[in-house]
């Protein structure tokens, strides 16, 4: 379990803009920046709600929980913070099966080869059958698994909040190896998932701003790089967690960290090709030659992935509690805590459509073609289309 001396801060605290604001929060004062007022837009696209179905009890999820729905074939799989798993037909919203886990779910679902893996708030990895949701096994780990587990090479790879990386046998749940990295005393309650490279290496970002390359065969550390460096007078200012999943393309890792940098790292040399100051705890996305990011102030950025040049930024959604950006055909989509889905042009960041759902959007939606599957805080899964 976590060392009792370790302090875990949620996104709600650390999204605040200054140390004095954080101090006020600790003293019970709410100085959170009010969300930007939405200005009317001239819609160029149409957004239509196709269906909406219950997916468990009221969502208690916060922005740091990685509960993005998973798509596999014609089925979408959802995990509820109260412990409810569901398989839903993505075309008509009919529920195919439902399973209640005896714990809260904080990460997942990961769906691969007939298996579903989730992390719980009781420091366990649980694996279910994809066909009917029946439980295959569960195993204890040393701390909460805030990042989505990874399934690869008949292994489940899971990173804990206290800086351990586990490998379990996919079919039996037997622990195969443990790689210990550790974590600082003050950490952000968010976490990036390991990324598999060349089918035998896991790239793992940690809360001290370092990235490990771990051999998937035996858990041995191959190399380690410092991606972000702590600066500032207070412990809060010195947080540099790597909370966005790295994206690996052609030997280059595209990275982003909290209170650190966004950049491109050569995996062969270990040197940055380019790097710009940035702060995010949400996943980034790439399309063609462009890298998109929602930062910790809810500003949306588009960068040239080759050199880091800023192509555009959209500041009209500050403090609205945005999700990570998603690509829908040739559009960029984000949800917000007021239940709005915003559709932007990928060319210039201008708004082309907007709609509001019945509950807050704290969890990143899933995308299939021109359809977006959105979980809202009132316990609904919504399918909307963009045309």
Verbal overview:
The chain is mainly beta and 387 residues long. It has a domain at 35-63 and 313-387: Thrombin, subunit H (Beta Barrel). The chain is built from 2 helices and 34 strands. The strands form 9 sheets. A 4-stranded antiparallel beta sheet has the order 2-34-33-32, with no helix packed on it. Strands 3-4-5-6 form a 4-stranded antiparallel beta sheet, with no helix packed on it. The model is unreliable at 1-7 and 9-27 (pLDDT under 50).
Q: What integer is the average pLDDT?
A: 86
- Summing up helix and strand content along with how strands pair, one would put the structural category as mainly beta
Strand arrangement, largest sheet?
Answer: 2-34-33-32
**Structure annotation, total helices:** 2
Topology, pairings included?
Layout: E1 7-9, H1 11-14, H2 19-26, E2 47-54, E3 70-72, E4 75-79, E5 84-89, E6 95-100, E7 105-112, E8 115-120, E9 124-129, E10 135-140, E11 150-152, E12 155-159, E13 164-169, E14 175-180, E15 186-188, E16 195-197, E17 201-205, E18 210-215, E19 221-226, E20 247-249, E21 252-256, E22 260-266, E23 272-278, E24 285-287, E25 290-294, E26 300-304, E27 310-314, E28 326-328, E29 331-335, E30 340-345, E31 351-356, E32 366-368, E33 371-376, E34 380-386
Parallel strand pairs: 1-15
Antiparallel strand pairs: 2-34, 3-4, 4-5, 5-6, 7-8, 8-9, 9-10, 11-12, 12-13, 13-14, 16-17, 17-18, 18-19, 20-21, 21-22, 22-23, 24-25, 25-26, 26-27, 28-29, 29-30, 30-31, 32-33, 33-34
């Amino acid at each position: 379990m976590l060392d009792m001396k370790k302090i875990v801060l949620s996104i709600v605290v650390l999204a605040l803009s200054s140390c004095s604001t954080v101090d006020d929060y600790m003293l019970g004062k709410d100085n959170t920046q009010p969300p930007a007022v939405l200005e009317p837009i001239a819609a160029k696209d149409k957004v239509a709600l196709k269906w909406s179905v219950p997916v468990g009890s009221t969502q208690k999820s916060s922005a740091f929980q990685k509960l993005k729905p998973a798509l596999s074939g014609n089925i979408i799989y959802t995990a509820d913070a109260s412990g409810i798993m569901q398989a839903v037909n993505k075309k008509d919203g009919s529920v195919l099966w439902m399973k209640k886990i005896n714990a809260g779910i904080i990460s997942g679902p990961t769906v691969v080869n007939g298996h579903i893996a989730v992390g719980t708030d009781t420091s366990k990895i649980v694996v279910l059958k994809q066909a009917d949701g029946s439980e295959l096994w569960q195993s204890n780990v040393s701390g909460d698994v805030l990042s989505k587990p990874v399934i690869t090479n008949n292994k489940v790879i899971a990173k804990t909040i206290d800086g351990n990386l586990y490998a379990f046998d996919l079919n039996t749940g037997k622990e195969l190896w443990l790689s210990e990295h550790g974590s600082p005393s003050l950490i952000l309650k968010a976490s990036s998932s390991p990324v598999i490279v060349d089918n035998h290496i896991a790239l793992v970002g940690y809360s001290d701003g370092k990235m490990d390359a771990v051999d998937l065969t035996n858990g041995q550390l191959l190399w380690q790089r410092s991606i972000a460096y702590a600066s500032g007078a207070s412990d809060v200012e010195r947080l540099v967690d790597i909370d966005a999943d790295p994206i690996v393309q052609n030997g280059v890792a595209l990275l982003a960290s909290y209170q650190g940098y966004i950049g491109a790292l050569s995996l062969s040399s270990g040197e940055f090709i380019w790097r710009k100051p940035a702060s995010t705890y949400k996943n980034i996305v790439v399309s063609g030659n462009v890298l998109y990011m929602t930062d910790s102030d809810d500003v949306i950025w588009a960068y040239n992935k080759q050199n880091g040049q800023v192509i555009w930024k959209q500041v009209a959604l500050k403090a609205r509690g945005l999700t990570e950006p998603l690509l829908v055909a040739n559009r960029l989509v984000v949800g917000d805590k007021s239940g709005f889905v915003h559709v932007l042009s990928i060319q210039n960041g201008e708004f082309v459509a907007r709609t509001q759902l019945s509950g807050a959007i704290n969890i990143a939606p899933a995308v299939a073609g021109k359809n977006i599957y959105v979980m809202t805080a009132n316990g609904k899964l919504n399918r909307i289309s963009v045309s």
